[in-house]
């Protein structure tokens, strides 16, 4: 078995640096990488938790994965049934549900009027699209849109209107056969249930009723009937679009994928994530400088040894790789520790926040006690994520394996580059000069 | 090309000049040397006469200003750095005045280093390193670090290291210059004994007359010229 000279020397140098003069620098470098990976993993986990929650709500409740609209919207029932049958027969299609959307002004018990979007869905939507019902949490009443005049309201909207299950609300919409003949029309509905989606905008501005109630409104300002399609893997939307185009006439139907439909919002989420990654990633720049400084000193201290290795036949590249391996080991150990801690924090994020709140509140309590004779106690408890402010009951966290791998690679990149830069001086070492014993 | 067909090393009209500002400092010129295979050539001379520089040129650790160094028929002055790296690793063994052992490695590991650089099979190399340490009388000290060894013991490890890759030529630059008399004598005897036993060729630079007399051929480097004694 051949044993790599670089690996042998690299591990020996790393072991010696861990114990010797460079120990502090090595430990700080490992800690730096670990803290960076831990912070990125935990922050990305929480961001994913929030973002995927939003995305899930938007895709399952609102935008679907693919929306199909008739270019010349006739909306006649036999054609629609045929289209739905053809769509549901496709292997990638999870569900296909027709829906209508109506802008309206809604009034409840309070004098306040609110604009809202009412979506008409089939009465058997629970069977047609189980994921929709799983995402939509019914907090009061039921999703009984099959009853005539029944409406299901978002929980926040119901609060603003001052209504509960069984109460009556009135809806003002524009109805008429053509744009010039539109007339305001007022209809009354009974609240059948209240839902919570986890996405504040939906809970504040959305309501559901049956497709039949929607067609009764018959407004020209509402778009024609749309079919919402959900596929098995939302990231294969382009392939699914092509499959659908094979079974539907592309000239008669317009297809919009979820990426296009939510481009601005999802783009903003992505940008937010990238910016956060870059900002936290700056830790690695600092760590890189620390590693560079430490290894530069190590190279300087080992000039004679480098000279000897070169005299014995080691190439510049091989000696440089010894120091790069040092950086790689720092990066690997730091990354693994950081990843482990980051995953632990992500899994127990609520406990971590509760602990942080407890510590801060204990500190505040202690300060109150000390300053009691001088100032009045605030008695306000510190809260990191209060449901009162943040519209959440617990902090969601999802670590994506792909992202965890990217974070580790990102963390390895910095020490390796720093070490390679520090090891560049190896080339300057001339054995004939450094091995001259005087 | 060569004066003698059995010469392992031929040095022809070798010149070394150091440039210092606008002045050229000639260390030596017209140096000619033939070293027969299996012999020891000893080079003496005053401090600063250029003995170490000559050895560094032969060892491809420094570049020549003029002349040729022919090792086994290959002119190393014409070779690229990559070829010289291979030349040092495969064909040369260095012993310096100072041991230059790697402080983080045990005696055994220090002896193993040349074989790792040359990518020799490890098990075989380990056996050979153990044998060499036994030959220099350090069987019991194999796992000791340089800091745990005496000056003489460190130099013995350096001798074993020089022999590790079975080089054809050993370049020894005042290997006893840093040792007391007793250790000097021991290293001298050991070095000549091992070189003979392994059938190696050696170029030895030394101040010690007694040590110099042990060589097959003696040379003196003075007034920028190398002459046979």
List keywords for this structure.
heterodimer; A: 438 residues; alpha+beta; six-stranded mixed barrel; 17 helices; B: 229 residues; alpha/beta; four-stranded antiparallel β-sheet; 7 helices
Describe the structure concisely.
The complex is a heterodimer of chains A (438) and B (229). By secondary structure, chain A is α+β, with helices and mostly antiparallel strands.
Low-confidence stretches of chain B: none
Q: Specify the number of helices of chain A.
A: 17
Shape type of chain A: elongated
Strand order of the largest sheet of chain A: 2-3-8-5-7-6
Mean pLDDT metric of chain B = 90
The major β-sheet of chain A equals: 6 strands, mixed, barrel
Radius of gyration of chain A: 31 Å
| Share of helix of chain A, binned | 55-70%
From N to C, what is the helix and strand string of chain A? HHEHEEHHEEHEEHEHEHEHHHHHHHH
What is the strand content of chain A? 15-25%
Distance between the terminal alpha carbons of chain B, to the nearest Å? 24 Å
What form of chain B results from the Cα inertia axes?
Answer: globular
| Rg calc of chain B | 17 Å
Structural class of chain B: alpha/beta
Would you count the extended β strands of chain B for me?
Answer: 10
The biggest sheet of chain B amounts to: 6 strands, mixed
The ordered string of helix (H) and strand (E) elements of chain B is EEEHEEHEHHHEHEHEE
Estimated helix fraction of chain B: 25-40%
Number of helices of chain B: 7
């Amino acid at each position: 078995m051949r044993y790599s000279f670089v690996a042998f020397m690299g591990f020996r140098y790393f072991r010696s640096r861990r114990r010797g003069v460079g120990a502090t620098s090595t430990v700080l470098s490992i800690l730096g990488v670990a803290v960076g990976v831990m912070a990125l993993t935990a922050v990305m986990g929480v961001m994913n938790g929030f973002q995927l929650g939003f995305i899930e709500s938007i895709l399952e409740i609102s935008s679907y994965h693919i929306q199909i609209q008739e270019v010349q919207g006739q909306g006649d029932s036999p054609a629609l049934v045929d289209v739905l049958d053809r769509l549901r027969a496709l292997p990638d299609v999870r569900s296909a549900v027709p829906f209508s959307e109506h802008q309206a002004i809604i009034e409840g018990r309070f004098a306040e009027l609110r604009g809202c979007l009412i979506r008409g869905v089939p009465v058997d939507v629970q069977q047609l699209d189980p994921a929709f019902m799983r995402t939509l949490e019914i907090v009061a009443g039921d999703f009984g849109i099959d009853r005539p005049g029944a409406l299901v309201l978002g929980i926040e909207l119901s609060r603003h209107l001052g209504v509960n299950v069984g109460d009556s609300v009135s809806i003002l919409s524009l109805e008429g056969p053509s744009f010039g003949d539109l007339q305001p029309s007022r209809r009354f509905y009974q609240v059948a249930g209240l839902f919570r989606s986890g996405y504040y905008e939906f809970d504040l501005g959305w309501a559901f009723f049956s497709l039949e109630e929607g067609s009764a409104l018959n407004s020209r300002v509402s778009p024609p009937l749309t079919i919402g399609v959900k596929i098995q893997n939302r990231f294969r939307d382009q392939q699914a679009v092509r499959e659908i185009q094979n079974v539907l006439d592309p000239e008669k139907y317009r297809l919009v994928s979820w990426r296009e439909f939510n481009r601005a919002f999802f783009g903003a989420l992505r940008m937010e994530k990238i910016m956060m990654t870059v900002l936290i990633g700056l830790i690695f720049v600092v760590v890189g400088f620390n590693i560079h400084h430490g290894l530069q000193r190590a190279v300087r201290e080992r000039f004679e040894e480098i000279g000897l290795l070169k005299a014995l036949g080691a190439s510049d590249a091989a000696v440089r790789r010894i120091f790069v391996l040092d950086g790689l080991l720092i990066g690997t150990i730091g990354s693994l520790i950081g990843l482990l801690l980051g995953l632990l924090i992500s899994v127990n994020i609520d406990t971590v926040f509760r602990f942080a709140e407890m510590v801060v509140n204990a500190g505040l309590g202690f300060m109150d006690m000390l300053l009691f004779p001088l100032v009045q106690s605030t008695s306000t408890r510190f809260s990191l994520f209060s449901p009162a402010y943040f519209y959440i009951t617990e902090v969601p966290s999802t670590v994506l394996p792909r992202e965890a791998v990217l974070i580790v690679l990102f963390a390895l990149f910095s020490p390796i580059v720093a070490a390679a830069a520090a090891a560049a001086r190896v080339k300057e070492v001339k054995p004939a000069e450094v091995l001259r014993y005087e | 090309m060569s004066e003698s067909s059995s010469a392992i090393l031929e040095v022809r009209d070798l010149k070394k000049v150091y440039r210092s500002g606008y002045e050229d400092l000639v260390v030596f010129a017209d140096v000619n040397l033939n070293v027969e295979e299996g012999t020891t050539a000893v080079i003496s001379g005053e401090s600063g006469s250029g003995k170490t520089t000559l050895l560094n040129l032969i060892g491809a650790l420094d570049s020549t200003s003029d002349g040729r160094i022919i090792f086994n028929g290959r002119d190393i002055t014409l070779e690229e750095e990559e070829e010289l790296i291979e030349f040092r690793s495969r064909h040369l063994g260095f012993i310096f005045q100072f041991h230059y052992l790697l402080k983080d490695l045990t005696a055994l590991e220090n002896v193993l280093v040349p074989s790792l650089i040359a990518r020799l099979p490890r098990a075989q190399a380990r056996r050979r390193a153990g044998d060499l340490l036994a030959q220099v009388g350090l069987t019991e000290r194999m796992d000791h670090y340089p800091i745990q060894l005496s000056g003489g013991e460190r130099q013995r490890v350096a001798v074993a290291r020089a022999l590790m890759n079975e080089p054809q030529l050993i370049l020894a630059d005042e290997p006893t210059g840093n040792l007391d008399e007793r250790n000097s004598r021991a290293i001298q005897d050991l070095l000549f004994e091992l070189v003979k036993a392994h059938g190696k060729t050696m170029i030895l630079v030394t101040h010690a007359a007694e040590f110099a007399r042990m060589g097959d051929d003696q040379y003196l480097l003075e007034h920028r010229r190398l002459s046979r004694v």
